[in-house]
Every structure is written in structure tokens, then in C-alpha cells.
Design brief:
The chain has 280 residues and is an alpha/beta fold. 46% of the residues lie in helices and 14% in strands. It has one domain: 2-enoyl-CoA Hydratase, Chain A, domain 1, CATH 3.90.226.10. The chain has helices at 6-12, 57-70, 102-121, 137-144, 169-179, 181-190, 196-201, 214-226, 230-253, 262-278, and strands at 33-38, 41-46, 78-83, 126-130, 133-135, 147-151, 155-157, 193-195, 207-209.
């Protein structure tokens, strides 16, 4: 049923939130990222609660910079990555892509991939707190984290082929490593969004909790992580990453190439945003 009404789901989720950027080109149209450090734990928050925390170029650059800075914090033991308010992130704020040049669109995808890589390369565990929607690049950010705690009503997926986006090997590999290649094909080919129960059955969810208990579930997991000697947890992360490294390296080496079918991409994105403006 979710796949039958994906446009409605994305609109209700605020995916892009209509109103294409008036400048007709590249520009920042969305909120950024905030970081709060309390003792050995940092909380990185996406967006400001509007547009389901979709980020533009500046926001994605901020996200990557935030994790690269945190990587140098010797006292850091874990990070929580969350969205502001009632949703995780609907990915990229597509309003910035209306009329953007192919080069600008390529740069946007490079910034998203760099942010995901920075999350993966942080030497301590990153826990995604996922409520609302985690779609497109928002899904990729969650997959880049070490662990994911989902609210029971959360939705996730990669509904990007519909807009003429050519999925990168790195994007596909994150999904394949957790859910397997067959499930990755399902989500990438159909573009459907899935609920928490199905995501958990395919290994995308570490823990789940009712939305009103999501904070408590994340807090409990963080206590478990920080109860152990920090050197042991850092070593455990390095060990797991060593096993995944060949697949990740192969994907990154194959990432060169166009990221969209430009004419179709511009048409589909503009039509979707205009349909949001005009309503049902």
C-alpha cells in the first residue's frame, strides 16, 4: 500500500515542500546542522524541523564538516544523529535543483556522499535516531551510521529513480551491506518506502520503540555503548570496518559518472514541486 501512494506520502512528509527556488539556479534554501557536546557524547541535529529537515548544499557541507571536526575529539565516545522535531530527514531540498546546472547538481551529490563518508569514518559509534521519514539521502545518512533506532511509525527508502537520479555504487552498497543485494534491488528499482517492521526484518533497524519512548531507547543504547572502555569500542568499530572495506572501496572507485539524466531530472523535479504547489 505504501508503494501505491508514494507521491502522497512524500508530499505529506514535506519532501521538498514545494515552491521552487525563485532564482532558478543553485542556492541555499534550507536549514543547516547543529552540534551539541555533553561530556563524551555529541548530538548532531539535522535541520530546523521545517521541510522534514531536507538540507541544501550548505547544510550537507555543514554535516560533513561537523563529523570531520568531531573525529578529532579524543574524549568523544559516541554520537547521536537525529532530525529536528518529528522527522529525521527527507534528504536533499530539491527546490535548489530547479534550473541548476549539471555541474551544480553533481556538486550536490558530492557533498551528500562526503557527509555520509565523514559519518562512516568517525572513529566512535554513531547512532541514528529515526522518526518520521528517512528518505533518499536521509536514508543514506541513517545507513551510514553504525546503529539505527527507529520509531514504530517511521518510514524509510530510496525513492530517487522516479526523478531521473542515477544511483551511485556507494549509495547502493550501503543498502546492500545491511539488507542484502536482493532487498537493495527491490527498494532502488521500485522506489517504495517501507515501515519500521519491514526495515527491521531486513537488518536496517537495530532497535525500535514507540515514538513517545524513542528518546529513552536511544539513551539506553548510549549508556550501553559508553559503559565499556572507549579503546575497546573504537577497536570494535575498526574491526568491523576492516571487513567491509573491500566492498566500500570498490564502490567508491566506481562512483565516477553522471548522477542524473539531466533533462528528465529537471522535468520530473519541477513537475513534482509544481504539483505540490497546486495541491491534489
Amino acid at each position: 500500500m505504501l508503494s501505491q501512494h508514494i507521491d502522497e506520502i512524500l508530499r505529506e512528509a514535506g519532501y521538498g515542500d514545494g515552491h521552487p527556488a525563485a532564482h532558478g539556479g543553485r542556492g541555499e534554501v534550507s536549514a543547516g546542522v547543529s552540534v551539541r557536546v555533553q561530556g563524551p557524547v555529541a548530538t548532531v541535529t539535522l535541520g530546523d524541523g521545517t521541510r522534514q529537515n531536507a538540507l541544501g548544499d550548505e547544510g550537507w557541507a555543514e554535516l560533513g564538516d561537523a563529523f570531520r571536526r568531531l573525529a578529532g575529539e579524543e574524549s568523544l565516545r559516541a554520537v547521536v544523529l537525529a532530525g529536528e522535531g518529528s522527522s529525521f530527514s527527507s534528504g536533499f531540498d530539491m527546490r535548489a535543483w530547479v534550473g541548476a546546472t549539471p555541474e551544480s547538481v553533481e556538486e550536490s551529490f558530492a557533498l551528500m556522499e562526503a557527509a555520509c563518508t565523514a559519518i562512516e569514518e568517525l572513529p566512535v559509534p554513531v547512532v541514528a535516531k529515526v522518526n518520521g521519514i528517512a528518505a533518499g539521502a536521509g536514508c543514506q545518512v541513517a545507513l551510514a551510521c553504525d546503529l539505527r533506532v527507529f520509531g514504530k511509525r517511521a518510514l524509510t527508502g530510496m525513492p530517487i529513480a522516479r526523478w531521473g537520479i542515477l544511483v551511485s555504487p556507494s549509495f547502493a552498497t550501503r543498502l546492500s551491506l545491511l539488507g542484502g543485494p536482493g532487498f537493495a534491488r527491490d527498494l532502488l528499482y521500485t522506489g517504495r518506502l517501507i515501515g519500521t517492521a519491514e526495515a527491521a526484518s531486513h537488518g536496517l533497524v537495530t532497535r525500535s520503540a514507540p515514538e513517545q519512548r524513542l528518546d529513552a531507547a536511544v539513551d539506553g543504547l548510549m549508556r550501553s555503548l559508553t559503559a565499556h572502555p572507549p579503546e575497546a569500542i573504537r577497536a570494535a568499530k575498526r574491526a568491523v570496518e576492516a571487513g567491509l572495506a573491500p566492498a566500500i572501496a570498490a564502490a567508491r572507485s566506481a562512483d565516477a559518472g553522471p548522477v542524473v539524466t539531466y533533462a528528465q531530472f529537471q522535468q520530473r523535479v519541477t513537475e513534482f514541486l509544481n504539483s505540490e504547489d497546486s495541491g491534489p
